[in-house]
Amino acid sequence: MLVIHKYQARIYVTLRPSVLDPAGVAVESGLKQLGYEGVEQVRIGKYIELMVSAGNERKAREQLDRICDQLLANPVIENYRFDLVEVYAEIGTSS
Amino acid sequence: MKFGIVVFPGSNCDRDVAYVTESLLKLPTRMVWHEETDISDLDVVVVPGGFSYGDYLRCGALAQFSPVMGRVVEHAKQGKFVLGICNGFQVLTEMGLLPGALVRNRHLHFICDRIPVKVERINLSWTSAYEAGQVITLPIAHGEGRYYADADTLKALEDNGQVLFRYCTATGETDDSGNPNGSVNNIAGICDRTGKILGMMPHPERASDPLLGGTDGLKLFEGLLATASDALVPSP
């Protein structure tokens, strides 16, 4: 009997610390103009949600790593991390 | 020498390149739709500027998975010529055919200008029609053209002489005042280790017809034509 687990992945793609983020700098200066003097080190990234089915969480994580390395993040300039939330499990009818 | 110009949904400099190769230089040229899977007739593939696939996710990120780009990798592996201009340069770095990445300009502005560029190396087909250290004027038009690579990659690029074009001042100084977008080492264009794959942010195709105010870009195509013909792999 095959159990299929379905997960929601919440993926965060961020610029590597060594890469200048001019958009973050611009937002920071905007916040300072609004009077938020204590704000610093604004960095802007991407948030991506997707659903993924896999036999177990380890397989889902492996698949997510490949997805992020191949497309969602560019390892030259970006890092990524993700959270997995299991949405439901069902009995699979085929492999 | 036959040119093929890749056309993605969102490409917008494809016809500018065809105008240069076909109308100005009278070379066989065809447009290559991104779903094509046979480009074996081509000697030079040009990946043009524009906004391939809307630049969704990252500039050039989605174009690498189009059917034709797999063929372009094979084309490159055969030692044939590949030229990526602007968005095409972004595509080539995303694919890993060229190292590094193009990220958002230092001051956030989309820059549309004509700027001085220094030719760093002339013993390659691409730059053979220029003089060493020559300062040429080329148009740029990009929001995400700041070349970035980590220190090790950058050192390898410099050690191997892979930097062909550098942003500079009008007098040829490659310092920060001559750097429009914040590219590391003022890099405007690089080639791979073999010298056959060239990626550049400036637009040589927009500086090829005197009517447009300059012909410094035409020499790129002329140099390629003059020196590369002998080295071409014959088509089967």
Task: Summarize this entry quickly.
By secondary structure, chain A is of the alpha+beta class.
For the biggest β-sheet of chain B, the strand order reads 2-1-3-4-11-10-9-6-7
CATH superfamily of chain B: Class I glutamine amidotransferase (GATase) domain
By helix and strand content of chain A, what is the structural category? alpha+beta
Side by side, the strands of the main sheet of chain A go: 2-1-3
Note the gap between the termini of chain B. Answer: 14 Å
The percent of residues in helical segments of chain B reads 10-25%
Radius of gyration of chain A: 18 Å
Mean of residue pLDDT of chain B?
Answer: 94
Radius of gyration of chain B over all CA atoms, rounded: 16 Å
Description:
The complex is a heterodimer of chains A (95) and B (236). Chain A has one domain: Phosphoribosylformylglycinamidine synthase subunit PurS (Mth169, Chain: A, 2-Layer Sandwich), CATH 3.30.1280.10. Chain A is built from 2 helices and 3 strands. Chain A is α+β, with helices and mostly antiparallel strands and 95 residues long. Chain B is an alpha/beta fold and 236 residues long. Chain B has a 9-stranded mixed sheet with strand order 2-1-3-4-11-10-9-6-7, sandwiched between helices. In chain B, strands 5-8 form a two-stranded antiparallel sheet. Mean pLDDT of chain B is 94; it is low at 232-236. Chain B has helices at 14-24, 67-77, 87-95, 151-159, 218-228, and strands spanning 3-7, 29-33, 44-47, 81-85, 101-103, 111-119, 135-142, 146-148, 163-167, 187-191, 197-200. Chain B has a single domain (3-231), classed as Class I glutamine amidotransferase (GATase) domain (Rossmann fold). In chain B, 22% of the residues lie in helices and 24% in strands. Chain B contains 5 helices and 11 strands, in the order E-H-E-E-H-E-H-E-E-E-E-H-E-E-E-H. The A-B interface holds A 15, 18-23, 26, 71-72, 74, 76-77 and B 57-58, 61-62, 65, 93-94, 99-101, 103-108, 146, 148-150, 182.
